[in-house]
Design goal:
There is one protein chain. The chain folds into two domains: 93 residues, 2-Layer Sandwich (Alpha-Beta Plaits), CATH 3.30.70.580; 98 residues, 2-Layer Sandwich (Alpha-Beta Plaits). Strands 1, 2, 3, 4, 7, 8, 9, 10 and 11 form a nine-stranded mixed sheet that branches. The protein has a two-stranded antiparallel ribbon with strand order 5-6. By secondary structure, the chain is of the alpha+beta class. The chain contains four helices and eleven strands, in the order βββαβαββββαβββα.
């Protein structure tokens, strides 16, 4: 069996799976690309998150990229409501306390920085709500763990709700480099195993 690797710019409102749970849902099966039948996503992005999703039939890759013991970094560009101050950014960097499934969880330290000037991304469909009276800010947030809706929960915990969330990097695979180029939502690229390592 030949091992194959694909990167997808997952669009908003698309599940990171091939099977529908309800008839109206959009899934990876709706992406205009003929993935091999044995390809599957490595990790996931929530339906309301966008960006870099890796798909492959290389089953050994899942543990290498997702096992907590490997602490593989994943970077997100996050548009938040409001303008985070130094205290909020410092709390994100040090880790925040979250309630997940009724249990208290302390996030590991994260890398956080303001993105100035704001990032340029393809327009989202539907667009992010805009409020004239409330500014928004883009931050880059790099985590080495992946609890359910962790980025959204972390930002809300420090008082800055997420408006848009785009994963731009998994390990060395990064938005804007020679591998990803200028991808648009729904675009797929075939990559080599060496690009992942």
């Amino acid at each position: 069996m030949a091992l194959q690797y694909f990167i997808l710019y997952k669009p908003y409102n698309v599940l990171s799976q091939f099977t529908r749970e309800t008839p109206q849902q959009q899934t990876l099966a709706d992406v205009d690309f003929d993935f091999p039948r044995d390809a599957y996503p490595v990790g996931r992005l929530d339906a309301d998150s966008e960006g870099l999703l890796l798909l492959t039939n290389d089953k050994s890759l899942n543990d290498k990229l997702l096992s907590p013991k490997n602490q593989h970094p994943r970077t997100y560009w996050v548009q938040v409501e409001g303008i985070p101050d130094d205290d909020a950014l410092d709390r994100l960097k040090k880790g925040v306390s979250l309630k997940i499934d009724g249990k208290t969880f302390q996030t590991q330290p994260a890398q956080v920085r303001l993105l100035t000037p704001p990032v340029q991304l393809p327009a989202r469909n539907p667009p992010v709500r805009f409020r004239k009276t409330v500014p928004d800010t883009w931050i880059a947030l790099t985590l080495t763990e992946g609890k359910n809706r962790q980025v959204r929960r972390m930002c809300a915990a420090v008082g800055f709700p997420v408006l848009r969330l785009v994963r731009v990097k998994i390990g060395a695979l990064a938005w804007g480099d020679a591998i990803l180029g200028e991808m648009q939502p729904g675009n797929v690229k075939i990559i080599e195993k060496a690009d992942i390592r």
